[in-house]
Amino acid sequence: MMSKTIRNKISIFTTCHHPELVTGGRYFLSIICFMLFGVEVARPQSREPGTANNQNITALNIGDQIPEALWNTPLQVVNHPQGKQTATLADYKSKLIILDFWATWCGNCIKNFPKLHALQNEFGDKIKVLAITKEDTDKIAKFFKTGVGKEHTYVNSVINDSVLSKYFPYRSVPHIAWINPNGKVLNTTQAEDITTANIQAILDNQKTQMVAKVDIDKNRPLFLSEHFSNDLQLKSYSIFVKGYYPGLPSGNNFKKTEDGEIYGRQMTNTTMMRIYNPILYELFDKKGDQFSSKRMIIEVKEPALLDVIKNEDGKSERYNLYNYELIVPEEKADSLYYYMLADLNRYSDYIGSIEKRMVDCLVLIRTSTIDKIKSKGGKPKNTFPASPSILTNQKLGSMINMLSEEKVITLPIVDETGYTDNVDIEVSGIKDLTSLKKELNRYNLDLVPAKRSLNMFVLKDK
User: Which SUPFAM superfamilies match (predicted)?
Assistant: First the structure.
């Protein structure tokens, strides 16, 4: 059986150290993780697992043979075609077995059910698609009787799983494990790799185009070998990866001191703009200013590459995604975001800086000395930009921050009211600037066009 595992073509840049982090003539320990093209995460070497009920089950690697203990382990199932309450993997020996790990709370898992069902029907007895969930009998029974689950009662699923998830460990679902007709672990992938072409290629002993999904513990430094000893103190670490990695979620993670101060940030499977944004909020705040999307001047040739790109099917493209992490010594936590911007300037395709620029803006002013906004007290509330938009017993800045992110407001907003007390303001909604101005006029407030010298984030190509 021939099967080609194609790892993501991703570029990785690591820093040996930050020159600024030199103390006492010694550089802090930092890690060089990988060079260019291809990530392979170390996994434990396999050994013959014990029985399936043994707590010492060892995770199976790609290429491992399924042990007899696993073949013959009774598995509790629902929606079995013959109405059985239990089944074993041995029931499907000599077939291509596709294990679909899922959960009732996973929307993408549920969206995949019709496709997997259609493929099962297409290939018939040549394959077996078997869903697996750790969730218990009551939760699964309720799922298939109510809501969206009622539409998918054809899903033959293992429930109460405590065995398969140990042989095929994962951190995110959907997670797919492939067992070839010869009883070997062929691959672990995302659900999108379950296609007619890939299934047929496996059955024909041909190469597939599947990308291995090896889940990473995002609470560890990204891609840092598990052999990094706990006796070592990681003082500085930076990695910048261009490309989508299937074993990571799309989101953020933090490293915090015991006092809650952030000394490490991690952004995974995300766009450059979503990496820049949290950095800029912090750096603008250190300047006593408020960052918003209107505080950017983008001077790059292809600005679309900075943010989410949708294809013709409405799905997000992945070729412009990145993984980035920086950890600094805890005593340098207050400089974390300066170092992050410096990292991006060194290793990305862009140069970004915060500069004073004379720009068009909207200035919030009072049109009368009559005070119509002073708060009457009560529980603080802010529903901006919902309709109606209500600000109760809060600072004017809370409203300005929310207005600054609204699409109908195309310019930065500057507060020149000089008002420092808490306010009560209510407007029907933020439909357009004209109607917003009219409602603010009721409170003797106005937004007037002007030019001001403001801190702006300027981004250029290298």
Answer: Thioredoxin-like
